[in-house]
Amino acid sequence: MIALTGKNQSYVLVLYGLCFPLIHVAHAQFILKMAAVQGGMGDADIKTDIKTEPSADGFGNNNANDGRVLSASPGSSSSTGSNKQTAAVTPEDQQTLLAVLQFLKKNKLSESVEILRREPGSDTNSDQPDVSVVLSAYSQQGDPTLYKVYYRDLKKFIETVLDCHRAELSQVFYPLFVHMYLELVYNNHESEAKAFFEKFSGDQECYYEEDLRILSGLTKKEHMRGNETLLDFRTSKFVLRISRDSYQLLKRHLQERQNNQIWNIIQEHLYIDIFDGMPRSKSQIDAMSGSLAGEAKREANKTKVYYGLLKEPEIELPLDDEDEEAENEEGKPKKKKPKKDSVGSKSKKQDPNAPSQNRIPLPELKDSDKLDKIMYMKEATKRIRLGPDNLPSVCFYTFLNAYQGLTAVDLTDDSSLIAGGFADSTVRVWSVTPKKLRKVKSAADLNLIDKESDDVLERIMDEKTASESKIMYGHSGPVYGISFSPDRNYLLSSSEDGTVRLWSLLTFTCLVAYKGHNYPVWDTQFSPYGYYFVSGGHDRVARLWATDHYQPLRIFSGHLADITCTRFHPNSNYVATGSSDRTIRLWDVLSGNCVRIFTGHKGPIHSLAFSPNGKFLASGATDGRVLLWDIGHGLMVGELKGHTDTIYSLRFSRDGEILASGSMDNTVRLWDAMKAFDDLETDDFTAATGHIHLQDNSQELLLGTYTTKSTPVIHLHFTRRNLLLAAGVSQL
Amino acid sequence: MADREERRFAEVSRESVRLMAEGAGVELGDDVAALLAEDVCYRLREATQSSSQFMRHAKRRKLTVEDFNRALRWSNVEAICGYGAQDALPFRSVKEGELFFVEDRDVNLVELALATNIPKGCAETMVRVNVSYLDGKGNLEPQGTVPTAVQSLSDDLLKYYQQITRAILGEDPHLMKVALLDLQSNSKIAALLPYFVYVISGVKSVSHDLEQLNRLMHMVKSLVQNPYLYLGSYVRSLVSSVMYCILEPLAASINPLNDHWTLRDYAALLLSHIFWTHGDLVSGLYHQILLSLQKVLSDPVRPLCSHYGAVVGLHALGWKAVERVLFPHLPAYWANLQAVLDDYSVSNAQVKADGHKVYGAILVAVERLLKMKALSLSQSAEGQSGAHPGSVVGAVSYRVNSPGLSPPPEPLSEAALGIASHLQVGGAGCHWEEWTPVPLPAMYCELYSFFGDSLAVRFSTGTGFGTHSPCTPSQLGDSRKEPPGPASNLDTTRKMPQLTANLNISPRQDGSPRTDPPPPSLSGPGSLPRASSMQRSRSSSSCSRQRSAGLSREVFPKARFTSPQTTPPAFSFLIGGRQMGQRCQGRRPFQTMFATTPPVSAIPPRTYAHKLPVIGRVGKPVRRWTCSHYSLHLPL
After folding, report:
1. Residues of chain B neighbouring A401 (CB-CB closer than 8 A)
2. Quick one: A394-729 is in which CATH superfamily?
3. What is the ipTM, given to two decimal places?
4. Shortest Cα distance from B440 to chain A (angstroms)?
């Protein structure tokens, strides 16, 4: 019994790392188990309890015990922001809670009862819908054979309305189709559902193909339980933006026809964001749609975002422009203001759009950081100004003999180290300069060192360990994300095993394993100022961590599918996450709120990049398109077509003139970012309505395409002097 | 669209479910099976969908078994083991039972454990830089990556190279053996190939040291036999080194005590081996070799040992080469040789001894020429008569009209394998100079005039066998010289089971020169490593005149048959890759093993009525070169 309690405690501990709503359930289960034991249940029961424990422990997930499959990740339970937390509270949990309540009452623990009652989702009379409730919304049904008629009716109507309305109203098709299909399936009209699907699935937009494929596999009521795509559809309303006129048309039509079936669905499962003014054109709609849950609501993107850059600390820069390598003969470093506007502008005065300097507490600069800043500035003065007629040279790092499968690459900011994450769970670091990698001496040897000496930093290194590369073992699954700290002392890696690990690049050992995701962690990245980092994975939540906390500081939940990539804003106040629900979200680190939702991609997003001035965001997806976003206005501002396969890497040049994209199609493409952003017509109307007119100017913006023979490009990096580095593993 | 959707999924039929259930000892009703089948389909799709995200995040295009297993693992399903192999699994069906299954071959673990050529892990992962230079406009010169070519030598490789060269060229014969063996089976030395080729090209600087030359030749052999190496254009360099050993009047040959003949024999053998196994890598190699051999042969200033090399080389390249080059030259050459042989002065003794060697070599070559030609003729005649049964005239005229120009080169192999090798043969490419084939009788006459009885004796020995093929009478009646044709034909037909095995696997069926029957091997006693094993399987070899006692120096690693005396030799055939495909890529696709039937003991080894007058060193055992050797990789 003691062992059991111990286990339970650890269970709860683990769960504390999870998102909060879950804790109640875990808590409840814990209490229930105690109850069972106290109630003198049979030994056999206790044993089974113990047996199931490890699995629950391993996944830290209340879903584990109802035998759900992969799809039922914990994130699904903690979906969008405010009031859908109970989505995953399954009937079993309900029963559990009731049992707990009963037990508590019996033992006269009225206070606990009250507490538990007050917790959201625990109460049976809570006003929030849970899964079974949501699903049972389907139980009210009409004649299954009429579904086709209804749908065809609506289709006919929409085809006959004026052109300007047709495009807008056509948006209704897809969500309606899905819901009607699911309703049929839920009510066990399998053959009707199949017929319905076959008849109308062809009408849907091609970018929903992926979802339709999942849907078509789902033909039984039993399948609906635990299918995450479906859950998403149920728990989040599909958002449509329709002009008032069009909406009125639709409403009138449905009321005339007494088409309650469809009207009900629209009422219950769709969120129609009505705006005044001109209806949008087909191309405008197509540009913005494609995500799992429709477009973003307009108010979702209204929050002010402080996208400006932080003021750079004043650092005296030794004046030796002519000859950097050799020290100045005079030997007296003069104070000098950085003169280059590209470099200096940001350190001049506070940007009006910038957050206040201490909005997010940032680590103080160490001496070594200052030195590095100086180095950076020196390099920056030698930087090549890129442009349409001055393209960067490309340097390609090819990984040879990487039979174990290269899954992630990162380069340090100063381009001195390259790290690779591999499918065989290893992390390898190479030095790409002649300087070899060395470990710090052992503690005993360190004791012998004269700590006062000037070159103590050099002395602590063990020459004997010098080598070109180091391997670090620790993960137990493929390493999907990897990131160097800005000071090059640490390396982060995220893996399929659900952990993020922090490695020291002085000792080449693992320092911390951050546990919390419990599911594959697809990506992780250090803040540009160090200390913080963000991670996101299969559990659909992104977490913000600080290196010295083993628990996350923030949990960003809202995505409806896996978070596939994470990026820090240059000012470290915001985090962008891309997801397989085909949306990009921007999160405020301070409040943890989602401040931007960008829709428009037609496939899972696999790369993100902020422009160096912090104003823009570029995103690349499996659909081979790069989309450009204006963060301040929350608008899509460009679409770059050209790649034919997933874009795994995006990077702006140091001054932001050029955007480089690297893809699975073995090419690096360079785009004229300056032109793309300059051509913007950001009039107030566009900003207000969010209706964008995208020019199809990809060909003009494409400056160059560089193909490798057979090496997918999985990482890109601009050196401080604007040399483009690319990395990948040869597929030959 | 809907149709397409439907078809996109694999369906598990209810029959399959029921079969599975039966396999597990459960009887299922129809409705249950249907339900289960549908659910299985759904779960499979679900797992596939979730596995695809592992693929996407691993930045791959190919979904692996591992991805799928991860998806299963995360859905709390046990992973499926046993499908992690990189190779595609053959999916078989049994017609009768309508059963489909994945072929699961037995793996002989003992064999695997004791195999010498296990890949020893893979090379170290590393990062290499390629710089793409751009002018301002974005034009760039070099693009892309060439991983193997830029691979520079790692420390390990360098060390390996030093050790190997030191061992091979060093004093310790045992060490050399080990080094050669490793060179022959190491899968990771591709990067070192240019270095080894360079070392081998050093033959010119050690022409005084027979031992070193021998070692270098062995090195060539090891490299050529290494199945993991792609020699590419290095073949040319290797060939020129080997040719040097065959043809050059080596400094070592000044001393008559040095047995440079063995070296030449061995090098000639090697030459034909390279050419048979790698000849396709360099176009026109055959003609280049023939030309240079011809040049040496027709140069009277060259010493006799060079001539000997040329003859041996031609012989090793096959009877067609002999017919094309040696035979037309014979009249001119004969005069010179005769002069040498007829000079009985003491001062000429050494030269005369050399002359005898050349004489012997020529004799062996032309004998084989005659034999093979007769064989091919008789076979084509046979084919002809098969086509027009009873048409004797047709057979004869065929023989007269097209003797040897394009004789079906591999009739036996064709019979056995059914691969039409005729087609490529026609254009045998032998039109590199005007050359009219001499009909067999004329050829025999001419040769007889040179060699007299020493030739005739060897030719008429085949009559020990009773049966005659239908066309023999006509051929017999045709000329006095004819008997050998049918005789040898019979001889070979008798030996069919064995010969076919050898011919089938001759490395090339398409390249014209290599369609010759396997060339015979001339070798010094013991210069062939496989002497012992091969002698057994080729015990009925028609050419062997006398057996050497087999004082074989075991310089060369015992490669193929570890204990030929106790177990029947088994051949492993390379199928696919070099043989089937046009150009070699993977040198070792897969192997199939055949155990040959033990040599037919019923056939008595050929005995010759007369023994040849012993001239020079011709008394060596001459065995037919079997190319099957070269497609053997593992001791079985």
Report:
1. 122-126
2. YVTN repeat-like/Quinoprotein amine dehydrogenase (2.130.10.10)
3. 0.76
4. 53
